[in-house]
Design goal:
- Chain B: It is found in: Membrane.
- Chain B: InterPro entries: ComplexI_Subunit1, NADH_UbQ_OxRdtase_su1/FPO.
- Chain B: This is Formate hydrogenlyase.
- The complex is a heterodimer of chains A (691) and B (319).
- By secondary structure, chain A is mostly helical.
- Chain A has a domain of 45 residues.
- Helix content of chain A is 68%, strand content 3%.
- Chain A contains 27 helices and seven strands.
- The longest helix of chain A has 36 residues.
- By secondary structure, chain B is mainly alpha-helical.
- Chain B has one domain.
- Chain B has eleven helices and one strand, in the order ααβααααααααα.
- Chain B is globular, with a radius of gyration of 20 Å.
- Chain B starts with a helix and ends with a helix.
- Classes of the chains: A mainly alpha (691), B mainly alpha (319).
- At the A-B interface, helix 17, helix 18, strand 4, helix 23 and strand 5 of A face strand 1, helix 3, helix 4, helix 5 and helix 9 of B.
- Strand 5 of chain A pairs parallel with strand 1 of chain B.
Chain lengths: 691, 319
């Protein structure tokens, strides 16, 4: 079916005989994808053996390493032409710098996750073993797709496989509920993305990325595509108002899957948003093109970070922090689109670079935190903050690694989270350069939102680490916890080390991401990276992480030298605690209730911001005078999205189902009329569109 | 030779601020006492306290971990590093390229998190209470700070402290309402960050109202000395930051200029003394507010920062 490419028939026939050369990176990627598929097929028979799980997880580990390595190779090699998959349906795959960057992100997150699974996942059910490689394969396929069909194929495979994993512990009703909501949101994402690609393909119906790029949408089509993609991709990424599933579903899955979902899967959704909205829809979009992402991102950042301060379950807290970070990434993407429309190419590249870098950093530190929480769950049999405490004594390795992740999530210099948030803040601080008063006002609000989110995230992370790892054990199980095996420690130390290294070297990583930034922002490049520094651009601000780290180290050494010179060694004694009595002998760690509780630590923020944003309520039930029973404080909150969006939707679904139920009573004639009427309607539509 | 002058400026700056930090704390205490008609402790008393604490044997709680031992060094290092970046008497310090307002905010956050974790480490009620309050107040103070930074970034085109100070010293901007609003916002943030009246009372040990002190209840010996030093350094940092941005008059230019440096040191000491006097007068004039009124106080600062930035847009549009 090759058309003559050159004048005259002969050379074209020659060309047709020679198969198109597929680059080595792409071949290796396809082989990795195939291996993951085979692994999923083999998982069910393998699960009968004791070593089956180790084989599957080891295979996923190898594949994840291969994906990360191939992503790196793709970034270094540059763009590759698309190649057709050897399938009966027309599918195309390609690796450009953007795909390669996200392959690196997903590959690194999956490596940590698979290491942890190798250490702890020996007794997983066969369906979970099979779904895990499929999950990774779906993500990788969505990243390397070069047409709408392949992208959706990978995206849906990822959603369905992860649904199986979310429903892992389906004996519990709350997990069933989480899985149901998760599936509903995944289906909703598909429902939105399929017509979006239909609109992008236009009348010609060519859904390859090259064809879409050649004819970007305009007018109402573009607006519809924007709405559909933000709704569909945003729902899977966890943007407000469709974030409600994330704090339920991410904690329900086994910990290594939670890590991969938070670290990897949300990034694939971000990739879809970036690919479709910034790359495929072309650079000729108006200024408001980036506004939905900016506004929803700011809302997600604030709401997620605030909710992370109110949740009492460690993994739910981390899931809320994921909402926050996805919000920050989307703010960067939205800003990049707006700057690009305003012909501020350098700033657009800055914002896009901040988003890409934060995606990588978040993937690593959030994987680390979820895996650390998984280790805690394994050792202390609870992830509820009120049942942990003092784990730093019992689990020093886990505590040390998690502390690094906590510092990065709290965006403290010189760790990785600060580097990307510094870039994002610099981009936000330059939003006023867009000559549009409404956008400038929006930019000011976005600066406040990003700073608020960062400070709230720091509070949430202090709360997580302080309640789970510091203080005294709140349960006997927490007192008797232990670090995991060496493999599990490696799964924590690998992302912790990378978090430190990437925090010190954001400049080289930004240089590495240059190609991916160029896909999103084709014009206006400035030398921004460099070994030591990241820069805003011409004469702007600079951040030199290595120098900051060296300065901190020097100052700490100075403080140490001054303080230690003639100081006596420290001694241990009972905590002073403002002179309170020591605990009775039957409570070796003291009364756990005299420590801050999860709800108590969140109280100031619940009162300050929770009441307006999250409908937080507090009620004190005082006993009547003379009654010695204790007073009870109950605190609760409700996410507005649940009450305003999900609950009405659920009611509408019930009403529709009740109405559809009436169809059962129809007569045979009416039954025959229904398909006939549908057929006629479809034919009429086809005649109208085609005519 | 340029780098030698830069290094010399930096070393002189560090020596100057290290000498100034205990004097700032002691001076404010002495001024406050004098205004109230009391004799007051000697202005050098904080230095004597530090020397005494450094000689004492630290007692660690049995439930404390290595966090309690490492956090004081980190807290002091973060405060010292941030202070090393804020110019005092001259421009062109060796670390001036690092002096970015967002980085300084990050270093302050690092010190804050170190202190909050140390407060939680022993597992006592008050430590956790103080940590929760400190982190919550910072959640509002940080956006207010960044909105003030936004105003400077719009005017100077960068968040670097050196260019901002140079621009303001040049005086071409004139008096602007938005800068006044940013100044008020920054003052409110500075009061909250340093746990001064009306947000917190540095002299009290009444448990129910404590924020800052509550986190240090278990610290003793050199650990307490380091925390006290960090808090003195932070107060000096905020005063130096205010004078570097809003009152950069008399700051010596970059390069080797001993006479200019002498003048700069004189001007800086004078500015710091005036700021200390203003802070002491302010603290004497008002009462501490309830803990749950603090968000309103900081929220006002946030709104002022917002208003300042918006006014700037409108004025540049009209001009």
């Amino acid at each position: 079916m090759v058309e003559p490419l050159l004048p005259g028939g002969e050379p074209a026939i020659l060309l047709a005989r020679v198969p198109p050369r597929i680059p080595a990176v792409l071949t290796a990627l396809l082989l990795t994808l195939g291996a993951l598929g085979l692994l999923a097929l083999a998982a069910v028979p393998l699960a009968r053996f004791a070593w089956g799980a180790a084989v599957v997880h080891g295979g996923v580990l190898a594949a994840a390493l291969a994906l990360a390595g191939l992503g790196l190779a793709g970034l270094l090699a540059g763009a590759m032409p698309p190649a057709a998959l050897p399938l009966s349906v027309p599918t195309q795959v390609a690796v450009d710098a953007l795909s390669a960057w996200f392959l690196l992100v997903v590959g690194l997150a999956a490596t940590c996750s698979a290491l942890f699974a190798l250490a702890h996942g020996a007794r997983l059910a066969p369906r979970l073993l099979a779904a895990y490689p499929l999950f990774l394969a779906g993500m990788a396929l969505a990243l390397v797709a070069a047409d709408g069909f392949t992208l959706l194929l990978g995206f849906e495979a990822m959603s369905l496989a992860s649904w199986v994993l979310v429903a892992a512990d389906h004996a519990q009703a709350e997990n069933r509920r989480a899985a149901r909501l998760y599936l509903a949101i995944a289906v909703f994402g598909g429902i939105c993305l399929v017509p979006a690609f239909g609109l992008l393909a236009g009348v010609a119906g060519d859904i390859s990325f090259a064809a879409i790029r050649a004819a970007p949408p305009a007018g109402w089509t573009a607006a519809a595509v924007l709405a559909l993609v933000v709704a569909g991709g945003g729902a899977k990424a966890g943007l407000v108002p469709l974030h409600g599933w994330l704090p339920l579903a991410h904690p329900a899955a086994p910990s290594h899957v939670s890590a991969l979902m938070s670290g990897g899967m949300t990034k694939v959704s971000v990739y879809v948003l970036a690919r479709v909205l910034l790359d495929l829809c072309g650079p000729a979009q108006p200024l408001w093109w980036g506004v939905p992402l900016l506004v929803l991102g700011a809302g997600s950042a604030v709401l997620g970070a605030l909710r992370a301060n109110l949740e009492t379950d460690g993994k739910t807290l981390l899931a809320c922090s994921t909402i926050e970070n996805i919000g920050l990434i989307c703010m960067g993407l939205g800003l990049a689109a707006a700057f690009r429309a305003a012909d501020l190419g350098v700033l657009a590249a800055l914002a896009a670079g901040a988003a890409l870098l934060h995606a990588l950093h978040h993937a690593l530190f959030k994987s680390l935190l979820f895996l650390g929480m998984g280790e805690v769950l394994h050792a202390a049999a609870s992830r509820h903050l009120d049942r942990l405490g003092g784990l730093i004594h019992a689990m020093p390795w886990t505590a040390g690694a998690v502390l690094v992740g906590v510092g990065a999530a709290a965006s403290l210099p010189p760790l990785s989270g600060f580097a990307s948030e510094w870039l994002l803040l610099q981009a936000l601080l330059a939003a006023w350069r867009v000559q549009d008063l409404a956008f400038q006002v929006l930019g000011v609000a976005a600066v406040a939102a990003a700073a608020l989110a960062a400070a709230l995230a720091a509070a949430a992370m202090v709360r997580l680490f302080g309640l789970a790892f510091l203080g005294r054990p709140r349960t006997p199980r927490a007192a008797g916890a232990q670090d995991g095996p060496w493999l599990a420690r490696a799964a924590l130390l690998l992302p912790a080390g990378l978090t430190v290294i990437l925090g010190l070297l954001p400049g080289p990583m930004l240089d590495l991401a240059q190609g991916a930034v160029q896909v999103l922002v084709p014009l206006g490049m400035a030398e921004r990276g460099g070994m030591l520094a990241v820069r805003v651009g011409d004469g702007g601000a600079r951040y030199l992480p290595l120098a900051i780290a060296a300065l901190l180290a020097a100052m700490a050494a100075l403080a140490w030298w001054v303080a230690k010179r003639r100081a006596p060694a420290s001694v241990r004694g009972p905590a002073w605690d403002c002179g309170f009595m020591p605990p009775p002998p039957h409570l070796p760690f003291g009364d756990p209730a005299t420590q801050p509780s999860a709800a108590g630590f969140g109280q100031p923020l619940r009162r300050m911001l929770g009441g307006t944003l999250l409908a937080a309520r507090e009620a004190v039930a005082m006993p009547p005078p003379g009654d010695p029973s204790p007073a009870r404080l109950t605190a609760s909150f409700a996410d507005p999205a649940d009450g305003w969006l999900l609950a009405p939707l659920a009611r509408a679904r019930d009403a529709l189902a009740a109405r559809a139920e009436r169809l059962r009573g129809l007569s045979l004639g009416a039954w025959l009329m229904l398909p006939f009427a549908t057929l006629v309607a479809l034919l009429a539509l086809a005649a109208w569109v085609g005519g | 030779m340029g780098w030698l002058a830069a290094l010399l400026t930096q070393i002189l700056h560090l020596a100057l601020v290290l000498a100034a930090a205990p004097l700032v704390v002691g001076g404010i205490r002495w001024l406050k006492a004098r205004m109230m008609g009391r004799q007051g402790p000697h202005p050098l008393q904080p230095l004597r306290d530090l020397a005494k604490l450094l000689r004492k044997r630290p007692v660690l709680a049995e439930t404390a971990s290595w966090v309690s031992r490492a956090a004081p060094y980190l807290g002091a290092a973060a405060a010292l590093a941030a202070l090393a970046l804020v110019p005092s008497f001259a421009r062109g310090m060796a670390f001036a390229p690092l002096g970015d307002l967002v980085v300084i905010a990050g270093l302050l956050a690092l010190g804050r998190v170190a202190m909050a974790l140390a407060g939680l480490d022993a597992g006592t009620a008050f430590g956790g209470l103080g940590a929760a309050r400190e982190m919550s107040f910072a959640a509002i103070a940080e956006p207010a700070f960044l909105l003030a930074v936004l105003s400077f970034a719009i005017l100077a085109g960068t968040t670097g402290l050196e260019p901002i100070g140079a621009l303001f010293q040049e005086g071409s901007l004139g008096l602007r309402v938005s800068l006044g609003l940013a100044l008020v916002a920054l003052l409110a943030v500075a009061v909250a960050e340093n746990a001064r009246i009306p947000v917190d009372n540095p002299a009290t040990h009444l448990e129910l109202t404590m924020v800052h002190e509550a986190m240090l209840l278990e610290a003793s010996g050199r650990h307490l000395a380091l925390w006290e030093a960090a808090s003195a350094l932070r107060l000096t940092l905020w005063l130096a930051l205010l004078s570097a941005i809003f009152f950069p008059f008399g700051t010596a230019p970059a390069g080797f200029a001993p006479l200019g440096w002498l003048l700069g040191i004189g001007a800086w000491v004078g500015k710091m003394a005036l700021l200390c006097l203003a802070l002491a007068a302010f603290e004497n004039a008002i009462a501490k507010m309830r803990v749950f009124r603090v968000p309103e106080f900081l929220g006002t600062a946030l709104l002022l920062g917002l208003l300042g930035a918006l006014l700037l847009f409108l004025s540049t549009r009209l001009a």
